[in-house]
C-alpha cells in the first residue's frame, strides 16, 4: 500500500523513520552476524556518531498458514505483545492520526534495582497482505509528562519487516535504543542480545494462538482498538460514517466469531467480517463464537 499522507505534528519524522526501516531491512549490507540463538539470526551494525549500535533479529516462520499482515498484527497489538514480550509492562495510544499511524506511550519492565523505562513515540505502518513495514520511534511531545517510577528512554529507531517468502514468512526486527540514566554495562549487553529475539517470540505466539483480527478497508473513521488475549476479544472504536472490514484467523477462532456493533449491519462470510452503515461513534466487539 501507499503510506497515507498526513499533516499531523509528527508526520515528517514518522515517514523518515519508516523509510529508514525499509532501508535497514532491504538486505544485510553493513550488518555483522553475531550468532544464532533460538532459531533467530542476530546481527549488529555500528552507527556513525553514536555509541549505541543497531541490533537485528531475523527469523523464518516456516508455515504458509499465516499472512505477513497477520504476523504484523501480532507484533504490534499491545494485547498480543503482553504475551510474547516479557519486558512489556503497559502502553496507551494517546492519539490515532489514522488507522496506520498513532502516537503512543509504552512502559517496559526492568530487573530490580533498575527503574522501569518508558517511551513516548509514534508508530507508522505500511501494510499489505504479503509485505508489511512498521516503524516505531521516540518523538518530542510535551503532552506526555514524566511518569513516576520510570526513566524516559529514547527509541532512536525501531521497526519490523514482515514478508511472505517461499516456505513461510520472513520476520525481521531492528532496533536502536538509548535506555538513558544509569545502567550497568552487563545489563546493556544483555538487552542488545535479548531484544532482537522478539522476532522468534512473535513467531511462537502466532504458531500457538493464531492472529488477532486484521483490519481491512475502512471508509469510516478509526479511533482506537484493544485486544484482550485471555478473552480473545477485539474491541474497535469507530466514528463518522462509512464501512469497515476485518478478517480473522481460524487458529485463534476455530469455531468462528460473533460480532456486536452499536451501529451498522454485520455480515460474516468465511473468515471475513463486513460492517456497513457505520453512523457516528460506534463500538465493534469481535469475540469467540
Automatic annotation (TrEMBL):
CDD domains linked to this entry: START (cd00177)
Gene3D superfamilies: 3.30.530.20
Coiled-coil intervals: none
Domain of life: Eukaryota
Molecular function per GO: lipid binding
Residues of the START domain: 21-191
PANTHER family xrefs: PHOSPHATIDYLCHOLINE TRANSFER PROTEIN, START DOMAIN-CONTAINING PROTEIN
Listed name of the protein: START domain-containing protein
Amino acid at each position: 500500500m501507499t503510506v497515507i499522507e498526513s499533516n499531523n505534528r509528527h508526520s515528517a519524522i514518522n515517514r523518515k523513520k519508516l523509510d529508514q526501516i525499509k532501508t535497514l531491512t532491504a538486505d544485510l549490507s553493513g550488518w555483522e552476524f553475531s550468532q544464532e540463538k533460538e532459531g533467530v539470526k542476530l546481527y549488529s551494525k555500528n552507527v556513525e556518531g553514536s555509541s549505541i549500535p543497531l541490533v537485528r533479529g531475523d527469523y523464518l516462520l516456516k508455515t504458509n498458514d499465516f499472512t505477513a499482515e497477520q504476523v504484523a498484527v501480532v507484533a504490534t497489538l499491545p494485547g498480543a505483545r503482553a504475551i510474547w514480550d516479557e519486558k512489556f509492562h503497559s502502553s496507551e495510544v494517546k492519539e490515532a492520526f489514522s488507522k496506520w499511524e498513532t502516537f503512543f506511550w509504552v512502559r517496559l519492565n526492568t530487573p530490580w534495582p533498575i527503574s522501569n523505562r518508558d517511551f513516548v513515540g509514534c508508530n507508522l505502518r505500511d501494510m499489505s497482505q504479503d509485505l508489511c513495514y512498521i516503524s516505531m520511534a521516540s518523538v518530542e511531545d510535551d503532552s506526555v509528562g514524566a511518569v513516576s517510577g520510570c526513566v524516559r528512554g529514547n527509541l532512536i529507531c525501531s521497526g519490523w519487516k514482515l514478508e511472505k517468502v517461499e516456505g513461510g514468512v520472513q520476520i525481521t526486527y531492528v532496533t536502536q535504543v538509548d535506555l538513558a540514566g544509569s545502567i550497568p554495562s552487563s545489563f546493556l549487553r544483555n538487552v542488545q542480545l535479548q531484544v532482537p529475539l522478539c522476532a522468534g517470540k512473535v513467531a511462537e505466539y502466532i504458531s500457538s494462538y493464531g492472529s488477532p483480527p486484521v483490519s481491512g478497508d475502512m471508509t469510516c473513521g478509526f479511533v482506537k482498538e484493544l485486544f484482550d488475549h485471555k478473552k480473545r476479544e477485539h474491541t474497535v472504536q469507530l466514528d463518522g460514517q462509512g464501512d469497515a472490514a476485518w478478517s480473522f484467523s481460524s487458529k485463534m477462532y476455530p469455531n468462528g466469531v460473533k460480532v456486536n456493533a452499536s451501529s451498522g449491519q454485520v455480515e460474516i462470510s468465511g473468515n471475513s467480517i463486513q460492517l456497513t452503515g457505520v453512523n457516528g461513534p460506534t463500538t465493534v466487539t469481535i469475540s469467540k463464537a
